[in-house]
Amino acid sequence: MPATVPIPVVCAVIEHDGLVLVAQRPAHKHLALQWEFPGGKVEAGESPAAAIIREIREELGCTVEIVQTLPRFTHDYSTVVIAMFPFVCRLAPSSLAPIAHEHVALRWVTPADLKSFDLAAADHPVVAAFQLLKQSKL
Fold this sequence. Notes:
The protein is α+β, with helices and mostly antiparallel strands.
């Protein structure tokens, strides 16, 4: 069986006033009603950094600035393999507040509260990397 080429995907851990934004996936999509860090697929010829700016603008109607890149990793959902490119971001000074254009709900939560959410499996390594980053800055 040939190796599956991972689909490049980006996500944003958007920070604001000590909170991070999580979004609930629609009921009709893969990983229905699970929570995730917003993002999406990297288009052909697009860099992951450009993709996260575009995806957040499309999904949430807001503008983010990249603060930090988290480690890239691969996750196998068995039906699809993704190469995840996570970013820590903040809302741009002139940005509108995020609006759930494609998600069921949005919530600003403390990083500690993330463990109480039914997060998509690929977001667990993102949470771990984000927490390590925060601990290293203490």
